[in-house]
Amino acid sequence: MDICAAVDREITIPPGQREVIPTGMVIALPAGYEAQIRPRSGLALKHGITLVNSPGTIDADYRGEIRLLMINHGKNSFVVRRGDRVAQMVINQVCRGHWRRKEVLDETARGQGGFGHT
User: Fold this and answer.
1) Nearest Cα to Cα of residue 28 among 53, 65, 3, 54
2) How does pLDDT run across 76-94, given as a tens digit for each residue?
3) Which architecture does CATH list for 2-93?
4) In whole angstroms, what is the distance from residue 10 CA to residue 57 CA?
5) Residues 5, 24: contact at Cβ < 8 Å?
6) In the chain, what are the domain boundaries?
7) Which residue in 50, 61, 64 sits closest to 19, CA to CA?
8) What pTM was estimated for this model as a whole?
9) Residue from 1, 5, 2, 10 nearest 78 by CA
10) pLDDT tens digits, one per residue of 33-82
11) How far apart are CA 87 and CA 15, in angstroms?
């Protein structure tokens, strides 16, 4: 779903700067779920606007307002107005891992091949 800005007044984000943008949204997720807050691709493409911590995670026990830490990577100032669609939210079920210490890992065809390997 799209998330809109709930600013009281226009907020200008100069190039290279960050601003916290309120959304006016509070949610109560059930245990075992999270909400991921993601940037909007159109804002990134057209204006260089994104979220600093992307994706942001809203845990099931958080009850405060969802606020967005936006950054302007563009060349021009960007103005956020009330009602602007500034981010997206996806709700996912969380899978909790259980850790075991191992001295040797199973081998795979990829092995330790990292960035650009495939």
Assistant:
1) 65
2) 999 999 999 999 999 999 9
3) Distorted Sandwich (2.70)
4) 26
5) no
6) 2-93
7) 50
8) 0.82
9) 10
10) 999 999 999 999 999 999 999 999 999 999 999 999 999 999 999 999 99
11) 19
